[in-house]
């Protein structure tokens, strides 16, 4: 079942999202520079669309740019909802298989965070949930398939939380997703001012 939902983003712009009942991200109108996808509307930090550019020739079925964008948007949505299963659901069950790292650089005096172990990532995401962390993907460039991972970056996102100064930060980042398990091996995010 589809429903049309209007949200206001910023001060004056209204956007429409097309979502399914299961919050699967569905394609919308494609802009000139890439393909757009809707973002799940139940995330308070949702934005109206994600621009997907680039491709990963040779990647297996179910692991194209649209699929990677959908999975990353779902991860950000799970983090925004404080989902306690986000670390295992989106990064796997074992360190190094394929999880290698997650990093978040910040502005405003908070320490830079890097997790090389899933247990550390799980603890970090639980702390961020207490601070009402919100992430929303806005754009992603798909770069290549290396036979095991689809590499992407730069990606652009929005971030907000109770302990971050200001309303929202714009983030840039990069990462890689393993296609077989649809889990992220690497994800690095940092604020940008441009």
Mean pLDDT: 76
CATH topology (fold) name: Nuclear Transport Factor 2, Chain: A
CATH class: Alpha Beta
The low-confidence parts are 1-47
Strands of the largest sheet, in order across it?
3-4-9-10-11-12-7-8
Q: Give the CATH architecture.
A: Roll
Shape: globular
Distance between the termini: 39 Å
Instruction: Tally the helices.
Output: 3
Q: In terms of structural class, how would the helical and strand content be classed?
A: alpha/beta
The beta-strand count equals 12
Largest sheet: 8 strands, mixed
* Order of secondary-structure elements: EEEEHHEEEEHEEEE
Overall domain count: 1
Taken as a percent bin, the fraction of beta residues is 35-45%
Rg (CA only): 16 Å
Helix content: 10-25%
Can you give a write-up of this model?
This protein is an alpha/beta fold. It has a single domain (27-192), classed as Nuclear Transport Factor 2, Chain: A (Roll). Helices cover 18% and strands 41% of the residues. The chain contains 3 helices and 12 strands, in the order ββββααββββαββββ. It has helices at 65-80, 86-91, 118-130; strands at 2-9, 13-20, 35-37, 50-54, 94-95, 98-99, 101-104, 113-115, 134-145, 149-160, 169-178, 183-192. The longest helix has 16 residues, at 65-80. The N and C termini lie far apart (39 Å). Mean pLDDT is 76; it is low at 1-47.
